[in-house]
Amino acid sequence: xxxxxxxxxxxxxxxxxxxxxxxxxxxxxxxxxxxxxxxxxxxxxxxxxxxxxxxxxxxxxxxxxxxxxxxxxxxxxxxxxxxxxxxxxxxxxxxxxxxxxxxxxxxxxxxxxxxxxxxxxxxxxxxxxxxxxxxxxxxx
Length: 140
Hints:
Elements: H1 10-57, E1 68-72, E2 78-85, E3 90-93, E4 101-114, E5 120-133
Antiparallel strand pairs: 1-2, 2-4, 3-4, 4-5
């Protein structure tokens, strides 16, 4: 009389457990990778928000009169900027705002966004026109 097998042997159970654990490890690694990707995505969105805020706050910046400086952003963050001329100065009439003669030139403004501790969170760079009024010449 032959005897039938009932259930699984210990070796079969161990092999099944090893296969299941490898599959679960792969799922766990994927979940960690997705979590890190989400954190990077959130950090990138926050940096873009800060850069847009910095650009909006520097809308009235005149690099000729204020070639470097610092602005306070939300949450104790700061924008520290410096500018350098890209073009030679030119004389214009009526630019940027009304009557008179102005010296204008294009500047590159480089800024760094700092956290409350002074660590750099990101950078922002843009071109901006700078100007200064010229004194009217007296004619004899």
